[in-house]
Specification:
By secondary structure, this protein is mainly α. The protein has a domain at 16-67. 85% of the residues lie in helices and 0% in strands. The protein has helices at residues 3-67, 69-104, 106-173, 198-211. Helix 1 (3-67) crosses helix 2. The radius of gyration is 76 Å and the shape is flat. The model is unreliable at 178-183 (pLDDT under 50).
Length: 215
């Protein structure tokens, strides 16, 4: 390595060290700034919390002033319980009056109950009549259908009997059919005689003459 290269390398190393130191310093400053910003944010949050607490304390102070403190609240609660007790007493008295009125009108209640029972009984009897009427109509329709079927069967039976009677009468009036056999002539086939010549006929005549004796 020459002297010039050696000096250049040293310069580069020194520059690298300086840059590393500067980078480390900046990183330290950045971390410090981050801490400061975090502290600022925390302070803002604390301010908001304190302000909210102050507002809450002010509102509670105003409300407590309206309420008048624990003693006044106790007095109001006692007065409220007394008013509620008075209302309950009045309701009890009114309830007793209602019971007495109901006892006085016991007869009317009995009459109304009897009227309801009578209406229910009438309605029940009407429903039973409707059921019986429907059942009677159904039975009547069934009987009518059966009678119609019986009439139809009887009509068909009578028609069959009438047809049989007419047929029997017709058979009695008509004479019994006799099957006539046509007489056909009896044909007898005779054997044909052989043709006789003139000479044979003459000879036959002579034989017949010789066979006849002289008288």
């Amino acid at each position: 390595m020459t002297a010039s290269n050696l000096s250049s390398a040293k310069a580069l190393l020194r520059s690298k060290a300086a840059v590393s130191d500067a980078l480390a310093t900046r990183r330290a400053h950045a971390a410090q700034l981050g801490e400061i910003l975090g502290a600022i944010d925390a302070a803002h949050d604390q301010v908001a919390v304190v302000a909210a607490m102050a507002d809450g304390a002010r509102v509670l102070r105003a409300l407590n002033a309206v309420v008048g403190g624990a003693e006044r609240a106790a007095r109001v609660a006692d007065a409220l319980r007394e008013r509620v007790a008075e209302v309950e007493d009045v309701a009890a008295v009114l309830g007793e009056i209602g019971v007495e009125g109901a006892r006085v009108d016991e007869g009317e209640v009995e009459e109304e109950l009897e009227e309801l029972e009578r209406a229910q009984r009438v309605e029940r009897e009407r429903a039973e009549r409707e059921v019986r009427r429907a059942e009677d109509e159904r039975k009547a329709a069934e009987v009518k259908r059966m009678l119609a079927e019986l009439d139809e069967v009887e009509r068909k039976r009578r028609e069959a009997l009438a047809k049989d009677e007419v047929k029997a009468n017709q058979e009695e009036k008509e004479p019994p059919e006799v099957k006539e056999t046509e007489s056909q002539p009896i044909q007898i086939t005779l054997p044909e005689r052989p043709a006789v010549s003139a000479e044979s006929k003459v000879e036959d005549d002579q034989h017949e003459k010789e066979a006849i004796p002289a008288s």
